[in-house]
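sorry for the late reply, my laptop died twice this morning and i had to redo everyting from scratch. anyway the thing you sent over, i finally got around to it. pasting the sequence first so we're on the same page, its 209 residues, then the predicted structure underneath. double check i copied it right bc i was rushing
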Amino acid sequence: MQKSSFRYTKSPDDNVIEKLIREYEDNPTLLKTGPKPAGFPLLPREILVNWLLCVPLVHVAKHSCLMVADDREDGTDGGLLDQTTELTHLFQHVYVPTHETPQGVVQKINNLVVSKFQLKAGKGIGYAEGVELVIFSDAVGLVEPTEINKLIKGVHGFKSVYVLAIEKKDKDGYHYWLTVLDSPRKYFTFRIIVPYDCSFRNCKVVQTH
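ok and here's the structure:
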C-alpha cells in the first residue's frame, strides 16, 4: 500500500469529527482508553492531535485541509492532506500521559519530551522516512524549544518534530500550545484555543514565536 493512499477523509469542521472532539474533551479518559470510532479508524488521541494540527494550517496559513486515515496497516497515525499545496503530511505520534508529571505543578518537561522522542528516533531511518513526529502531552508543563533542538537536531530522519500539549482550561475553552522543532525553518510556536463547543471554525490561534 502507498503511504499516501487513504480510505478515509474528513474535513476538520465535519459534524462527526467535531462531535468526537467534544466527547474527548469532555471525558479525557477516552484519550487513553477509548476505542477507534466507526467511520474514522484512528485512536481518540490521534484524532484530537491531527485535528489540532489543522487549526494553524487553516486559521493562520489560510489553507484548506482534510484529515486522512486508513484502517489497514500503513505504518502511520493518520495525517493531513493540504488541499492548497497538494502536500500530504503523515504523522507518527508518541504520548506523554498526565501521570508522568506531578499534579498541580507546571514544570519544564524537556526531559520527558526528549525521552519520548528517543523512543521513536531509535526505530531508525526507515521508520522515520517521509513522516513527521508529534509528541503529544496531556501532562501540563513547559518546553524550551532552543534547548530541545540542541539535543535532537541532526540525530533523526523525521521531516519535522512537533510538541503539542494542553496548557489550561478557562472561560474561553481549552488552551493548547504547539511548537514545531527541528524543521527546515526556525522553530515556531502557536497557542491554540478550542471553544467548549469544539467548533473548528471558532477556534482561535496566535503565533507566539
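The domain at 8-207 is CATH 3.40.1540 (Hypothetical protein pa4535).
thats about all i looked at so far, will dig more tmrw
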